[in-house]
Structures are given as C-alpha cells and as structure tokens.
Amino acid sequence: MNNIIFIIMDSCRYDTFVAAKKNAIDLFTATNNTAVEKRYSYASWTSPSHYVMLMGLMPHRSPSKVFASDVYKTEFANWITRIGKDGLSFKNFIPEFSLPKVLRMLGYQTLAMVSMPVLNPMTPLNNNFDNYTLMDNHNDFPGMVDRMIFKNERPSFYFCNLGETHYPYMLSGENLPHISGVHGVFKQMDDFMLQGGPHQTKQDGATFFQPDEMQRLFNQQIRCVEHLDRQFHRLFLKAPAGTHVIITADHGELFGEDDYFGHGPIAHEKCFEVPFLEGKISAELQSQLTTLS
What we know:
By secondary structure, the chain is of the alpha/beta class. It has a single domain (4-292), classed as Alkaline Phosphatase, subunit A (3-Layer(aba) Sandwich). It has helices at 14-19, 23-31, 46-53, 68-83, 99-105, 141-147, 182-187, 189-194, 211-238, 283-292, and strands at residues 4-9, 37-40, 109-114, 131-134, 156-162, 244-249, 254-255, 261-262, 273-280. The strands form 2 sheets. Strands 2-9-6-1-5-3-4 form a 7-stranded mixed β-sheet. Strands 7-8 form a two-stranded antiparallel ribbon. Helix 2 (23-31) runs antiparallel to helix 10. The two termini are 29 Å apart. Mean pLDDT is 87; it is low at 181-189 and 201-205.
C-alpha cells in the first residue's frame, strides 16, 4: 500500500496558487502528466471543510447533468488508486464515514499536524488518528516536513493543515493588519457580551481595508504559496518514491471582490474556489528536484 500525504493549504485561493511561481509543484504535475484543477470546497470555512475531507471527499468539480450520488461514488472509488489496494470494501466507511478509520483498519499509521487552533486535538477531528498535533507555530510547514518519518513495515497517512496561506499571511517581518478568526473571536466573547453584545453600537475601531491594501494582501498570499513550494521541494525529496500526494485548500478567500473580505459567512464563489492536484512522487521527480537543489 502507498504512503499518503494529504496537504490542505488553509484559505488558499485557486488564482493565487496558479499565479505563484512553483518550481517543485510544476515538476510534480509534469511528472504525473496532470495539471492544477479549479475545484470547489464543500464549505466556506475551516472546520466543516476539514470534516468533509476526513470523510474521504475531495473538493468537487461541480459537474452538470449528473446525479450527485454518482459524483460521490467516483470520489470514494478513487481511494483504491490512492491507497494502492484492490478490493477495498467501502462498507468500512460506514457508519463513521471516517477516512482515518478506514486507513487505520488497513494497517496505516495515521498522523495529523494542524496549524489552526479551531482544529485542535480536543475536537472530533482527532478521532482515529494515532497522533494528532496542533503545531506551536502558525507557519510551520517546514517543521511538519522535519517530523515526517516513513517506515518500511507500515504505510503512513499524513494529514497536514498549513497556516502559511491563512490570513494574515505572515512569513517573517511583515507589517500587515490582523483581524481575529473564529478561535480569536471566541476568546474575546465574554468581553464582547459585557460591552453590549449584538446590540452594541460602538465600533471596535476597525475599518474596512482599502483597495490597495486588498491588493497587497492578495499578493502576500501569492508569496506564501511560493514559500510553501520550497518546502514541497524538501517533502518530495524526503518521502519515498511511490508516495501518493494530495494538495488542495479547505476554502478560498475574498480580497475585496464585491466588497467582501475573508471567508466563512460569505456566499461568494471566491470563498469556494480552491486548487486541487494529486499524484505520486516518482524517482524521475526526485532526480529532477535534486538537479535543481
């Protein structure tokens, strides 16, 4: 059976991903004779999207003139190729609908490393993982790659949520504005309610970003993807040849389109457009990456 690495770049838009310079990713797609697809997430914010992906469902293509049930069948059937095991029984997916449970039953070591506090180990997402870690640093994909160990006697399933592409898109030294996400909002809820809660009229001083600031943030997400590509280079060289890799995002992001910013309680296509690519790490890929090193 194949080692599997499932990478979710938090909040990464399809168009920022495509716009970034990605030497390692481009070699990965070329050696797999594939391309980066535009797909659509099942949810517009982190937690529910991750729940769906841990059911085994990838962001979808949104095909027309088909029954939704046929799309689900095709998606679940793709796990036969990803795992590399014929005769996989899909009865194993029920009643929990848990991908890590199925992989664990097949003998995989199931390991998760996440960046977002809303995905912390106390949530139900932790079910059926042998080890589930909330990283100390929001931007530590390099640390995740360092921690990965592949054992010959047992295949590994790594599930990784990357914070680099999530607002505020910090890498090092940037002076960018910061607005709390869901986790930060909950931490501040007691003070909010004491100040009048939903009926308060006093604003907290925050103002909506101007167009030039929106463009700056859009460009910053592109820079973050380029930073991640250098870590994918390391990962593709470290993982054994034959490892199956899935790279996608949990949802998109708004950078001022139609006067929206962010993600979550927003019904806009840019909240749902995500990149998607998958394939195997080959000896050919590793040889070409070594030449680039």
